[in-house]
Amino acid sequence: MTEDSVFGPWLKRWALLPDGQPIITPGSRLLPVRRGDTPAMLKIAIDDEEKFGNLLMTWWDGDGAARAYAQHGDALLMERAMGQRSLMHMALNGQDDEASRVLCTALARLHAPRPTPAPPLVGLVPWFASLRSAAQRQGGRFSQCLATAEVLLAEPQDVVVLHGDMHHDNVLDFGARGWLAIDPKRVTGERGFDYANLICNPELPTATNPQRFERQVKVVAEASGLEQRRLLQWVLAFAGLSAAWFLEDDDAQAAQGQLQVAKLAASKLDA
């Protein structure tokens, strides 16, 4: 599949000019473009999750997320982040608390009710299938994570449309428009699921640091209005799920990192 065949029809359809090199991800193909004088990002979804994510971006209508300029079929034309700030850089350079608060603010906007029905979504119960499989095969920490997840899933609180993949690289600097989210999944459930990811983020080298963990649990609980114990339960459940996903991807090292986060959460819950 050539770049011309992927992007060409959409460049023509929306009168776009390429403005950078293509970006290839497992689920999509992206191309920086310009529509007249306006910088934008053209995203072509390759898998179903990304296609539904495009619909969710359109539904959010630029409130807490990048603005969708146009959407049709597998393609989304959206606002491009032109700011220079990075939440990952902030988190690793003395502004971890501020980065977490920015992420919590973004999530609060995304979780807010909207006047129109949401696009098709999947509940969190099937979302945890990989953790159930890992618990059956390996037991141990996975079984502990699953037991906590099942309790949370049985009696959800504050059910919202979730982002589903909220982390430091999915909220970008949009200059005057502030920090806005990109790349959602199609999932609905208790809002604590999204906040847990801020603490578990496997791309964050400091995620397994006990001092950082304890501090960010407090910061996120305060900024989100979540009860700290409930947040820790979601961190335990989410870390187990994340570890199970990494095992499915044959990334044992990343899985161990997430299990270490689960251990930190379990220790705090037992204290």
Number of helices: 11
Radius of gyration: 19 Å
Q: Largest beta sheet, briefly?
A: 6 strands, antiparallel
Mean pLDDT: 95
- Low-confidence segments, given as residue ranges, are none
Give the SSE order as H and E letters.
HEEEEHEEHHEHHHEEEEHHHH
Q: Report the β-strand fraction as a percent range.
A: 15-25%
Protein name: 3'-kinase
GO molecular function, one term: phosphotransferase activity, alcohol group as acceptor
InterPro entries: Kinase-like_dom_sf (IPR011009), NH2Glyco/OHUrea_AB-resist_kin (IPR006748)
Notes on the structure:
With about 270 residues, the chain is α+β, with helices and mostly antiparallel strands. It folds into two domains: about 5-80, 2-Layer Sandwich (Phosphorylase Kinase, domain 1), CATH 3.30.200; about 85-270, Alpha-Beta Complex (Aminoglycoside 3'-phosphotransferase, Chain: A, domain 2), CATH 3.90.1200.10. Helices cover about 50% and strands about 15% of the residues. The protein contains eleven helices and eleven strands. Strands 1, 2, 3, 4, 5 and 6 form a six-stranded antiparallel beta sheet that branches. Strands 7-11-8 form a three-stranded mixed beta sheet. A two-stranded antiparallel ribbon has the order 9-10. Strand 5 and strand 6 (about 75-80) form a beta hairpin. Helix 6 (about 130-140) packs antiparallel against helix 7 and helix 10 (about 230-250) packs antiparallel against helix 11. The longest helix is centred in the C-terminal third of the chain and has 21 residues, at about 230-250. It is globular. The N and C termini lie far apart (about 55 Å). The model has no long low-confidence stretch (mean pLDDT about 95).
